[in-house]
Design brief:
Shape: globular
Helix content: 25-40%
Protein name: PatA-like N-terminal domain-containing protein
Distance between the termini: 41 Å
InterPro entries: PatA-like_N
Mean pLDDT: 93
Number of strands: 9
Structural class: alpha+beta
Strand content: 15-25%
Pfam families: DUF4388
């Protein structure tokens, strides 16, 4: 079974697999964002965005995408349901609403925030920390950390820095040195990816952040860049571009 969301809504696809007690993998894409869901006897037992696995990752994929494609492939899958199907659908919808609300002031959980005061619960942001890193420091789910950050931004306890968690990536591209010796396309940043500097250092040295984002999205989507964490990195990069294209009034 395969098709387009322009003809069959994703929610209907999920309901059909559940009703038919399907077992296999459902591959989805909306724009450049992929998602895979594992079904056993019509129940969702796993899934994620590339290497970012679990319901937390699933919940960031739009439940009602206007465009995109799906393909269900029957295969051997085993596992325990993440939750009963009806509850799964309801929680996914609720989380989609939560993400939309929090992203009205925060472009992505990779954004680095800062506070000048070591006052709880925001003391973790002294000196600057991404929301993803704050979630780990607090020991809470990402959505809870994002809600705290959202409240901190709205109430003036936190400020946004022009930094992101993915700035820490240090990429060593195998063709970087060969590219240096040849003719360089000014739009290709491969020549700079020799592993000597992380992406944040390259941005601070003058490389446009939009160019870095586009490079990462292209090479993660193509499978050429397989850095650990590429699933959440891709999710956040696409959110950041969406926020820039549709700024909040």
């Amino acid at each position: 079974m395969e098709g387009s969301f322009s003809t069959i809504p994703l929610s209907d696809v999920l309901e059909m697999i559940h009703a038919n007690r399907g077992t296999g993998v459902l591959h989805l894409d909306s724009g450049k964002l992929p998602l895979h869901l594992h079904f056993e006897e019509g129940e969702v037992v796993g899934g994620g965005i590339l290497d970012w696995e679990g319901f937390e990752a699933i919940s960031t994929f739009p439940l009602h995408p206007e465009q995109g494609h799906f393909k269900f492939e029957a295969s051997h899958v085993q596992g325990l349901p993440l939750m009963p199907f009806k509850a799964f659908m309801g929680e996914w919808a609720r989380m989609n609403d939560q993400w939309a609300r929090f992203r009205s002031v925060l472009d992505s959980p990779s954004r680095v925030l800062e506070t000048p005061r070591a006052v709880e619960p925001f003391a973790v942001f002294v000196g600057g920390k991404s929301v993803r890193a704050a979630a780990k420091s607090w020991g809470v789910p990402l959505i809870i950390a994002t809600e705290r950050a959202w409240r901190g931004l709205r109430e003036g306890d936190l400020t946004k820095l022009r930094k992101y968690a993915w700035f820490a990536l240090r990429i060593r591209h195998p063709s970087a040195r060969r590219t240096q010796a040849g003719i360089r396309d000014p739009r290709d940043i491969t020549v700079l990816l020799d592993g000597s500097r992380n992406l944040g250092e390259l941005v601070h040295a003058g490389l446009p952040i939009a160019q870095v984002r586009n490079y990462l999205i292209q090479h993660i989507s193509s499978g050429e860049l397989e850095a650990p964490g590429r699933g959440w990195i891709l999710r956040d990069l696409l959110w950041e571009i969406e926020a820039e294209q549709n700024p909040q009034k």
